[in-house]
Amino acid sequence: MPQLIFIAYVLLVIALSLIPTAMGGSGLYSDKLAHFFAYGGMGFLAYMSEDSAEKRFYLFLLVISLGAVLEFFQLYIPGRSASFLDIIANTLGASLGYFVGWIFLATAIKNVLLDKKLASDEATTNYKDNLNAP
């Protein structure tokens, strides 16, 4: 299921990136923030959608490459323009999203392991208490 969510998100970003727009538009900072957050979400989903570190890394490279390729294609779309700053915003967003995914998953695993250890310790304590009971 996480893979399907990742694929759907990638397709959404591709569609939104290649839709012709009217000339003019948003300000510089809001455009860069949009790129940053769009690719941040993609980086996070790339990390969460796979189990192997190798596949995660390849997806990360794919996300960064996709950002650069889509910027190139925007040269040929009416109302769009390519920008090196957009590629940087895409890369930084994907990197942060990937890192947040790593932290999120590491924290979740740590919490699960701690819960198992606590449950095991409680079970051992209860077992010992029951042995000493009259």
Describe this protein's structure.
With 134 residues, this protein is mostly helical. It has one domain. Helix content is 81%, strand content 0%. It has four helices and no strands. It has helices at residues 2-18, 28-48, 53-73, 84-132. Helix 1 packs antiparallel against helix 2 and helix 2 packs antiparallel against helix 3. The longest helix has 49 residues, at 84-132. The N and C termini lie far apart (52 Å). The model has no long low-confidence stretch (mean pLDDT 84).
What are the main properties of this structure?
single chain; 134 residues; mainly alpha; 4 helices; elongated
Our estimate of the beta-strand percent is: under 5%
Structurally, how many domains make up the residues?
1
Shape assignment:
elongated
Low-confidence regions: none
Question: What's the total number of strands?
Answer: 0
What gap, in angstroms, lies between the N and C termini? 52 Å
Structure described in brief:
The protein is an all-alpha fold. It is built from four helices and no strands.
Write the layout of secondary structure elements.
Blueprint: H1 2-18, H2 28-48, H3 53-73, H4 84-132
Helix pairs in contact: 1-2, 1-3, 2-3, 2-4, 3-4
